[in-house]
Amino acid sequence: MRDLLQRYVDKAGLDDIHLHDFRAKAITDANKQGHDPQALAGHTTEAQTVRYLRDKEIPRVYGPRFKR
Asked: What is d(CA 40, CA 60) in angstroms, rounded to the nearest whole number?
């Protein structure tokens, strides 16, 4: 998975993207939806999970809507 991710990251011209970024995103989203992020991640302590949780909110932006 890491090699495949790296191939696409390089192809897209991006920097500093890692598998753990996706893990952090999934755990953070699960937490916001009221699920148990520690159970999802399989961590034995809450401290392990807290390191993955992202506390900043990124606003969702919707593009213009076109009528057909």
From this structure: 24
Please tell me the distance from the alpha carbon of residue 34 to that of residue 18, in angstroms, as a whole number: 25
Contact by Cβ (8 Å): 53, 37:
yes
Residue partners of 28: CB distance under 8 A and separation at least 6: 37, 52, 53, 54
Q: CB of 52 within 8 A of CB of 27?
A: yes
Q: What's this model's pTM, rounded to 2 decimal places? A: 0.66
Q: How far apart are CA 34 and CA 59, in angstroms?
A: 19
What pLDDT is attached to residue 67?
60
Nearest to 24 by CA among 45, 2, 49: 49
Residues 45-64 have pLDDT tens digits of 999 998 888 876 677 778 77
- Per the structure block, which two tokens stand in for 64? 């213009």
